[in-house]
Amino acid sequence: MRDWLRLAFARSIVCRGLVYSVVVGTVLTAINHGDSLLNGQVGSRHLFKIGLTYVVPYVVSTLSSVAALNSRTE
User: Average pLDDT by consecutive 10-residue portion of the chain (74 residues)?
Assistant: First the structure.
């Protein structure tokens, strides 16, 4: 577990995850919440969902990057 966390918080993994999160999260936010954003009808429920829209790509990127690095060393 300690090795997994070390890899997950490595600078290159975090930076890659953040880039993917911004790109994918923005596209998904535009698709899923664009109409609400343009109409100014964004409440706390929308903000929570938009936040998750950015978190999910970060988590997926981190999990797959760590898994790829672990499989390479095995």
Answer: 92 96 97 91 91 97 94 75
43 DSSP 8-state letter:
-
Question: For 14-41, b where at least 16 C-beta lie within 10 A, e where not — what string?
Answer: eebbbebbeebbeebbeeebeebeeeee
**pTM of the full predicted structure?**
0.86
Q: At what angle do helices 11-39 and 44-73 cross, to 10 degrees?
A: 160
Are 25 and 54 in contact by the 8 Å Cβ rule? The answer is: yes
